[in-house]
Design brief:
This protein has 13 helices and 7 strands. The protein is of the alpha/beta class.
Length: 349
C-alpha cells in the first residue's frame, strides 16, 4: 500500500468524510468517521498534510490537527467547487479538496488563532445587535406611520416617536400604544447592550499594539482596527499594498482580453467587513474635508474638486488599505503626507 501524504477532510457536525491520497494522487483510503473517531484517528496518524475547506469549525480543527503534528491547509470553498466531479456528495467533496490542495498555484486561507476567533465573536455579536436595533426602530416607525405619524430614519429621530407614544392626546389605540412602548423598551435594552459591548471592544483596541497603530490613521477607529486585526491575514502574505487592497475588493473589476485592459466598477469580491468599515471611515474623512476644507495641494483636495464624494471615499479607502499594509509591514505609525511633504498618502510599492 502506498504511503498517505495528504488527507482531504469534508467537515460536518457529526460525520466526517476522509480521502487519503499518495504523493502521485492515487487513492489510498476513503473513510467516514464520527467526530470522536476522527479525533482519535488523526491523533494516531503519522504527520502528513491535511486539507479542509475554510468553513465552520475549520479553524478549530486546524489548531487541533496542528497540535498532532500535521500540516493543515485551508481552502476557500469557491476554489474547491471546480474540482467536484459530477454528483456532489461528501465523498466527492473530500476528493475535490485533495485535488485542489495539490495545485501548485492554489491560494490558501491563513489559520486563525483562538484569540482572533474570540474577537470575531465580539465583532459579529455587535453587528447582530445593531441589526436587531435597526429592525426594531424600523418596525416602530412603520407601526406609527399607519396612524399618520412620520419620523425620519435614524436613531437620532427616535425621541420624536417616543413623544408621540407618550402623549396621551395622540389618537393611538391603547393596544398600539402598549405594543410601541414594549418596542421602545426593547430598543433601550439593545442600546445598553451595545454600549457595554462597545466599551469591551474599545478596551481590546487599547490593549493591542497593532490596533493602537492602526488608529493613528484618520478614519480608522476601534471597531475598524479590531476588524482588521481579526479578519485580515498577516501582511507578509501580500507582496505589496495593492495586493491587500485587491484582497479586500477595493479594486476595479477587469474585463481584459487580447492585450486590451478594460476596468469596470469596484469588484467587491473580498473581505466585506473590513471593506465596508474602511469606506465608512473614508467617507467620514471626505465629509470633514468637504466642510472644513482639505489641505492645499493634497490628493484629497484635487479629487474633491472633480469627483463625487462617494467615488472619492472609495478611492481613499483603497489608499487607506495600501497605507495599512505599509504601516503593519514596516511596524510604523501613520505619517501625515502633508507634514511629511508628500503629495499622496503613505508610499506603498
Amino acid at each position: 500500500m502506498k504511503e498517505v501524504t495528504i488527507i482531504g477532510v469534508d467537515l460536518a457536525k457529526s460525520v466526517f468524510q476522509l480521502h487519503g491520497a499518495a504523493s502521485d494522487g492515487a487513492v489510498v483510503f476513503r473513510k467516514k468517521l464520527t467526530r470522536v473517531q476522527f479525533h482519535k484517528f488523526m491523533s494516531e496518524r503519522p504527520a502528513c498534510t491535511v486539507a479542509m475547506e475554510a468553513c465552520a469549525s475549520a479553524h478549530y480543527w486546524a489548531r487541533e490537527l496542528t497540535g498532532f503534528g500535521h500540516r493543515v491547509k485551508l481552502i476557500a470553498p469557491v476554489y474547491v467547487k471546480p474540482f467536484v466531479k459530477r454528483q456532489k456528495n461528501d465523498m466527492a467533496d473530500a476528493e475535490a479538496i485533495v485535488e485542489a490542495a495539490q495545485r501548485p498555484t492554489m491560494r490558501f486561507v491563513e489559520q486563525k488563532t483562538a484569540s482572533q476567533q474570540a474577537r470575531a465573536v465580539a465583532f459579529r455579536t455587535r453587528e447582530q445587535l445593531v441589526g436587531q436595533r435597526t429592525e426594531t426602530i424600523n418596525a416602530l416607525r412603520a407601526h406609527l406611520y399607519e396612524f399618520g405619524y412620520v419620523a425620519q430614519k435614524g436613531l437620532g429621530n427616535l425621541s420624536r416617536l417616543a413623544e408621540v407614544i407618550g402623549d396621551e392626546n395622540t389618537r393611538l389605540p391603547d393596544l398600539v400604544r402598549d405594543v410601541c412602548r414594549d418596542l421602545l423598551e426593547q430598543i433601550d435594552q439593545l442600546t445598553a447592550r451595545l454600549k457595554k459591548l462597545k466599551a469591551r471592544i474599545d478596551a481590546l483596541a487599547r490593549e493591542g499594539k497593532t490596533s493602537q497603530r492602526l488608529q493613528t490613521m484618520p478614519g480608522v477607529g476601534p471597531i475598524t482596527a479590531l476588524a482588521i486585526e481579526t479578519f485580515a491575514p498577516p501582511m507578509g502574505v501580500f507582496r505589496r499594498g495593492r495586493d491587500f487592497a485587491a484582497w479586500l475588493g477595493l479594486v476595479p473589476k477587469q474585463y481584459s482580453s487580447g492585450g486590451k485592459q478594460r476596468l469596470g466598477k469596484t469588484s467587491r469580491m473580498g473581505q466585506r467587513d473590513i471593506r465596508r468599515l474602511l469606506i465608512i471611515g473614508a467617507m467620514s474623512v471626505v465629509i470633514a474635508a468637504s466642510r472644513k476644507g482639505a489641505p492645499e495641494g493634497s490628493w484629497l483636495k484635487r479629487m474633491l474638486a472633480t469627483k463625487p464624494r462617494l467615488v472619492v471615499a472609495i478611492a481613499l479607502a483603497n489608499k487607506m488599505a495600501r497605507g495599512i499594509w505599509a504601516m503593519l509591514s514596516k511596524q510604523e505609525d501613520y505619517k501625515d503626507p502633508i507634514r511629511a511633504g508628500v503629495a499622496g498618502d503613505i508610499t506603498c510599492t
